[in-house]
């Protein structure tokens, strides 16, 4: 869930104007320009570069991009859409927001646009993505830009030098043991990178997959809070201990972007995170580890699988005055045509994959993604948002709880856990405080 190797995310925010002014003011509604708010991941940085000479040139529609780090993006898009401010015509949101925002009447349905564009080929979209981005009426309320699960990435050269074979389906204990053995394998190299940056979609995403497979859950089926339960506590202690003992430098401030940098620059030997990161790791232009990365399924304890399911997707707020222009951009950005453009202009490993079946049948993509394409697709197909743990859940979601309150709850709890990683508090205190917050949320549903 996932940011560019060293760009806007570090600087705070980046305005990229494609043949137009910055994206900070409301567009006029003349259909000649649109404002797009998106997360600063590598795939979004790519589209910001490619739009002017392709989409704008072909359609005459200027696209003003605002690119923000993940946590800032979430705050900004929620603020804009929830308050009906109407500053943006298109925004990147994910599987968590879509059903909640659709229910609130904040989003345009997009099935009619997709159905009316034969070249878009809606039937080609992977079923898990369609399901996660559909509303209660079965219609799409966001179009997937790319889809992902989570898996383990590791430095094959380091493992070979140490005589270590990483299992294809490892347990978390096996990964912790390996992290200890490869810590310091090269000067300045740490054993593993795990997100420590607070945020329900940052630290909260990998941590919750670990909680699930350790037998824990945020809430039972009947909405009893479980944040300081033995299973939740065991998983969190394991996570915090692992990252404190063998994790990246400055772990409490490290999110997706920082871990991507650390792995691509050979500062860590392993990384558990989004499958969508593989394309950046295999990009020889920016990654020192390209061609030397091994991949394994998300580590487990008590469950058969533990990978998350996510899609960064294009949504259109109901407030837009440029629905036609916005829909043209979204259809193009999620199209086979756009994937081909990325492959030909930037390299096939950088294609925003994980959303279309046809992507995995392209010979050029198969070649570029030979090491990670198959395991990515199987991880996406193997994720089970309805039953991600060892007991029934009150809502769907692997790495989140699909209620509006979770955005605030997950962020506050991970702030405390991030402080535990930094050595400023204990896991017990963090989870006891989190339990009270979770109990307050549960009262709304019991």
From TrEMBL:
Domain of life: Bacteria
A Pfam family annotated for this UniProt entry: SBP_bac_1
InterPro entries with a match to the protein in the record: Bact_solute-bd_prot1 (IPR050490), SBP (IPR006059)
SUPFAM superfamilies per the UniProt record, alphabetical: Periplasmic binding protein-like II (SSF53850)
Gene3D superfamilies found in the cross-reference section: Periplasmic binding protein-like II
Protein name: Sugar ABC transporter substrate-binding protein
Organism lineage string: Bacteria, Bacillati, Actinomycetota, Actinomycetes, Kitasatosporales
